[in-house]
Structures are given as C-alpha cells and as structure tokens.
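Note to self: the last two entries modelled the partners one at a time, which told us nothing about the interface. This time every component goes in together.
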Amino acid sequence: MKRNFVGYIVLAIALFLIALLRPYAFFYGVQRGSLYGLIALPLALTLGIVGLLNLAHGEFLTLALYMTYLLFDKLSIDPLLSPVLTVPLLLLFGLLVYKLVIERSLKTHHLNLLLLTFGVSIVMVESLNIWWTSRPRNIYVPYASTSVSIFGVYVGGYEFLYTLAAFIVLAGLLLFLKKTRLGQATYAVGQNPRGAALVGINVKFVYAFVFSLAAGLVALAGALLSVRSSIFPHVGGPFTMKSFSLTAMAGLGNLPGIVLAGIVLGIAEEFVKSIPGYTGWADLVFFVVLIAAIVFRAFGRREG
Amino acid sequence: MLLRTEKLTKSFGGLVAVKSVDLEVKQGEILGIIGPNGAGKTTLTNLISGVFYPTEGRIHFEDKDITFVPAHLRARMGIARTFQLVRPLRDFTAFENVVVSCLFARGDSLREARKSARKICELVELEEPERRLDRLTVFELKKLEIARALGCQPKLLILDEVMAGLNVEEMQRMIQLVKSLREKQITICVIEHVMSVISQLTDRVVVLDRGEIIAEGPYEKVAHDPKVITAYLGEEA
Amino acid sequence: MKYFIIMALCVLCFLLPFFVGAYMIHVLTSIMIFLSLALSWDMMLRTGQLSFGIAGFFGLGAYASIIAVDDFSVDPLLSILVAAIFAALVALALGWIVLRLREIYFAITTLALSSVFMIFARNLSDLTGGSAGKVLYESIFKGDSIKIYWLVLSVALTVILVSELFQRTRIRFAINAIRDDEIAAKCSGVNIFKYLLFVFVLTSAIQGAVGALYAQQYAFVEPESTFSANFLLLPMSMALVGGIYSTLGPIIGAVVLGLASEYLKLVMPYGHLIIYGLILIVTIMFLPRGIYGTIANRIATRR
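The predicted structure of the combined assembly is written out below.
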C-alpha cells in the first residue's frame, strides 16, 4: 500500500511539472487521453464480461468515423447529431458480427476467438479500403476550431468534449452496472458466467448485449472524433492496442482507473511529442506501458 | 520429516482457503487427509505441488525450503500428485501420458522413458496402454493418474480422491495398489471421502475444516472426535 | 522406403528450375518463403501461444540484413545469419518478459510488434534510411534467380526439418503437454517457461532469416512494405487452411494458397488482403483443423 501511495505522489508531481513547463502538452494530453479512455471502456467491458478481446475494436471506430462522414457529406447531418443514427447502426452491426461470427465459437479454444476477431478486423479494414480508397477524408465544421484560454494558455476547446464524454459514459456505465437489473445481471455474468446461468440469467443475451453496446459506445466516440481527425482505413487500428494497454494497466474491473490511466498516458504521449527530435517516438509510449503492465503483473505474482 | 508446512495460508481475494496449516508428513507413512467439501484439501495439495504459491507460511521438503520453488522443479524433487478431476493430456495415448512425466520429471531420454513408462503401466495393471483416452474406463483413468504421478519417481505421492467413481471391487484393488506403493518407499497422502478406505490404508489422519486442521491422530480416535463429527454433520450431530 | 521417396522429392525440387520457366521459379521461390513463415508460425502455435509477430520479425531480419550488407560490408549470405541472430536476441529479450503472462497479453504484444519496429525504422533514419528505406547496390548472387531459388529451398527444407524434429523428439511431448494443460504439464516436470521461450526465439530467428532472404532478393527495405500485413496474414491463412499442428499442413496450405494468390493478384490487384481475412474467419468457423487436420482426424477415428 505504501508503495502505491508514493508512486501516486510522484506521478502527481510529474503531471504538475508538465502542466507548468509544457502546458500545451498537458492540455492536449488531457483531451487526447480522455479520448483513449472513452474508447478503452467498451473494450474493457467486452473483455471483462464476455471474456473476449475484440481485435476489431479499432476498426469499429473506423467504421463509425466513415458513417459519420457519409451522413455529413451526403445528408448534411451535423456530426454531433449523427449518433442518433450511427449508434443504432453500429449496435446492429456489432450484433450482426457477434451472431454470425463469434457466438458459435465461444465454447471453443480461446485462440480461435482471437483469430476470428483478427480476421474481422482485416476484412473491415480492407473493405473500407476498397470502398473508400486510402485517400483521407475530413469533416470541417466551424465549432471544431474554437479556442479557449486556461490560465492564459490558448488551447483548442472542442476536444474537451472528449473529457466530458468520457466521464459521462463512465458514470453511465457504473450506474448501469450497479443500479439496473440488466446491469447487475451483466456484472454477474462477468464475475461468474456459470453461476449467473444457474440463477436464471440469460448469459447468451448478456453477451450479445455487451458486444453490441461496446460497438454503440465506440460510435459515440467516433462522432466526436470525426471533426478533428482525418478519416482513412487504418485510422482506428492503433486504438485497439492502446485500449488494451489501458485495460491491462488499470485492471479489468477498474473502469474509473481506465479513464484516469488514459488521461495520464495521453499527457505522457503529448509530452514525448513535444520534445524536439523525439516526436516520432510518441507512439511507443503505449507499448512501453503495455510491457510495464505485463512486468508488474508477472513479477507481482510472488505475493500469491 | 519428509514434508513440513509452517503456518501455511492461502487466500483468494476475500476467501481464505487454507488457514495457518502446520502439517507434518513422516517418511514412509500413509497419511490420510479428510474433511468436508470445501475444507481446503485440494488447495493444500496445489500448494504442496506448486500449482500456486501461498499467501503466507512456508513449506519444507526434506529440510529444504520449497515455498517458492516452481512446480516442475518440485516434480523433479520427487513430489507428485494426482488430480481429483482427472486431467490426462488429451492429445496423447495413455502410454504417452506416462512417458511425459518420465521424460521431464525423471529426465530420462526418450528410449529410457518408454521403458520406464512400460514398467509403470505394468505396475498399476494398466492394460493396452496404447489406447486413446476415450477408450479408458473410469478405473483405468484413475490408474493412469497414478501412473503419471509415478513417472516422477516420487518420494511423496499425494492421491486426491482416487476412489471417487469406483465400485467396491475396484476400490479394493486400488487399496492393494496403494499398499504396494508403500513397499516401494513412497510416502503417501491419501485425500478421501470414503472412510472405509481411510481406515484400511492410513497410519494417521489429519482433518481439515474450513482451511484449518481441527483434529489429528489415528483414524479410530479421529472418527470419534466430536469436532470432526460436527464439521461433517453440522451443529445438530 | 519413405525416406527414399523424400530424398527423391528433395532432389526433384533442386532440379526443378531447369524444367520450368522464369515466372514459375519466381512463384515457387515466393511460395517457399511463405511456407517457411507459415511453418514457423505453426510451431509457435503448437505450444498454445498465438503470435502475431511474424511480420515484425520478418521486417526486423530484413532490415538487419540490409544494414549489415550496406553499412558493415557483411557478405550477403552471412547477413542472413546475422539477421537470424538479431531477431533471436530481440525475441529473447521480449519473450523473457512477455511469456510470463501469455495468451492475450502475448498475442497483443506481438500484434503491436510490427508497428513498434516500424517506428524504430522510421525514426532511426541514419541507420535505416527512415521513411524512404534503403536500397542495396545489387541483389544477392547478382540476382541469379536459380541460385536464389536454391538458397530459399535450402532454408525451407531446414525449416521443414526443424518442424519434423519438433514432432518426433521429446520436444513434442513437452509442447503438446503445455498446449493441452499447463498445470498437468508442470506437475509432470515440464519447465513451461523454458520451452515457450525456446520455441519463441527459434521461430523468431526463422522469421528473421526469411525476412533477410526476401530483402536480399529484392535488395531493398522500406517501412511500409517490409512490415506489410501481407507477411502476417498469408502465412497464418496457409497454416490454417492446410492444417495447423503439423508439418504437412502448412506445406499443403502454402502450395494451395501460394498458387491461388498469384491468380488473385491478377484478378484483384488491390485489396486482396480481404480474401485472407475471410479465409481466416471461414477456416476457424468451419474447418478449424484445416485440410490435412480434418483428413488425418477422419483416418484416426476410423481405426
């Protein structure tokens, strides 16, 4: 316990220093990190409840981005309104993928599921590549470029929506899991699927529900991200590994920890980006975190 | 003293499966370990064989501290166990299952391992061991578990409920087998629910309840211990 | 008798270039490259661990070999060995950490590998030529396609030999036990970590060597194409289609898919990766043991 406490103090000091010395990195990091946390939550949900690592997670985001772009481009629907359509569509898509591909293989070797979701991710990326080509698309809306002043530092204001969304979704999930019947059933399935089945919970339904819900949540993130990011077939890919790194670091059941870890790592990433000459190395941050999480888990095991 | 545990404790999150157990196993004896379901008998076996490490406490084998020694090294040191729910390796024939432990716990070459495995199969009277696993009866699967454990050339053999699922005649033959193992200088721990087996086989019995040792001694004495009876039957015994 | 046939087949393979045209030699060389990758992936899979790192170590070996020849004047043939050793060392360091946790942790770490190595390739531009890559003055053997074919054939035969050794020696017992039931395996004396690490290092070395072969053949490396997902997907599909957990399976898969992909490239110049993704899904769902595995299974259960 004491070790943890000291670690957190050190971390807080480091973050404070970064905020002071490199305020842009700090605020962009908070924003970007909230996005990571927001996207990681559905992955953690699927991993924790269904026990499935969805390697196509990032591709669901890519799909959501393209859908938002399509609605904006062809029907002039504002991206912030588009979730009304994209969330149900993606919920359906998630359900389809689950029913067609995943459900029948749930009882088989877990490696099968990894290969399956990997195959799904490839099919999705390549389909989008064929349909849209690799030319990046962009959505331009005026409000995406607003600027805000914090302690005299001018940063982009729009991306704080990520932070807002992350905490809203986090709160929503926590309330859902604790207070609603479906949520409690979901939580029970995550703890002990056999036990849950014995008390009459429809485990299959919960699995399908969670998988679809994850896709729907990703759609939300996609809508927000769509105005600030280029959209191209491989855009979502990196988010899969980053989401998993956050989950590995915070711990499977620790939803708030995942969002906080996201923010911390977002800041770390931006910090590395801001060091002249080391910009290209920023993407390694999450990989290092993944390795570190593995090290802690593996070598912390001695305590039983 | 072949095996000695010192305040051995194992908790899983909030659940304490084994609580401060001081167990002693004397060289050459057949020790019975009994207790109601969930008493921690299999957890204790897992701790001794090294499947996981304890939360607190120590384990000594032949006066060496093996608390954090990995399982495969313990197998080579001569600690072997059977599994309550038999876990033979599905991709192999019964014979090959025995070869595995001869290869890696004994360190035999492939040729030597095959010879040793054959001898062990004869010893446990496992006929036609080249059969695939789905052709073996429950009795034969249990014998296979023991054969696999014997492949480790054990000094200490822990039998986790080998009698489960056997009929009366098979149980008698199993008892004879265990007795014959004792003649080979193997110290044996028998975890069982069937009391007649315990009374026939064991020199001494240890009773576990909710992770703790509540009684110890020869079977006759332990069977009449009110604490033991309460543990098995509940308060209104 | 069996050995005689195998020897005859090997000799035949060596003599093949004299009987077929240049295009076919090229196709066969390509098939053997992917065959080696497919077998190396399968060997790791036999331990029960799913590695997505093929493309990563392939690219690592490619870069190591090109850099060795270009910057350190190493003989091209020797550079292949250098690449294998380099890949092995990286795998050793990585595996020593990650193989303690296995399964999804191991899988996703290996998945990230090609991206991570790509970052190194892009940023260490002095060494690697950055985003533009590196070009060699000439290909190995001055581009003689028959000599290249023989070299690749030798490597492929070596890999096949290693795979067979895995199936025949005590290694088979260790690996199958680990894959089937780790707890039973370790209680029978198997040092799981040691075997996993050994197989990981060995298969990564193979992948590095193959990457070097490929790079020496085309005499260039470049981050995007050298670490292409093609080198991950195609070997996996080959092993799955042909039949995992065997030597013959990946060979069958390599020939079948290798020939098919040549045809596919003509018909569908872009996005043919989607086919491999579909193959992956369909094979897992309907034919998980692949062609060879399903046949072998039918024969075994009929006995």
